[in-house]
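Posted in: Protein Modeling Q&A

I'm a second-year student putting together a small comparison for a lab meeting, and my supervisor asked me to include a predicted structure for 5-formyltetrahydrofolate cyclo-ligase. I've never done this before, so apologies if this is the wrong subforum. The sequence is pasted below exactly as I got it from our records. If anyone can share the structure token output, I'd also love a short note on what stands out.
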Amino acid sequence: MQNKKHVRALIKERKQQLSKDEQVYLSEKVVQNIEQCEEFRTAHSVLCYWPLADEVLIDSLIEKYWQTKQVYLPVVAGDKLELKLFEGRDKMQVGAFGILEPSGEVYSGDVDLVIVPGVAFDLQGHRLGRGKGYYDQFLPSTKAYKLGVAFRLQIVESIPVDEWDMPVDKVVTD
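Accepted answer (user: helix_wrangler)
Welcome! Here is the predicted structure, written out as tokens:
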């Protein structure tokens, strides 16, 4: 088993091989596969994420469904995540780490589905994040179905797991 730093470096190297056009094309495939998931189709409320430049670009999914589902986005507040309702791109502001975040009220309820980004996922659904632990702290607090999303190149055989690392229920790729 490789250490987390090594896996992060390996995935970063793989992602750098993707052109922007390939990233957009593969992201569209992932979005189509999310839309085919029963868990997504039946969810009334979904926690998504606003993508960073090197992540699966799911902003098209958010834009398509925000008026028919309750779509929440995470907002970094200190060392934890808070949820805020997405109410359109024009009601977003730049938050922590340069990520666009909704500017509305904090939502304290639960959601039906969490779409979880990750640096890498393994065949057992273990997730490797960026190392800050935001999702590892948040995921135990929700009963929602946890759907990891990644490019196929982000799937590895196994990831080093610590006791605080939370697996996802399923991983969707391109």
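A couple of things worth pointing out for your meeting: The chain is about 25% helix and 25% strand. The two ends are 25 Å apart (CA to CA).
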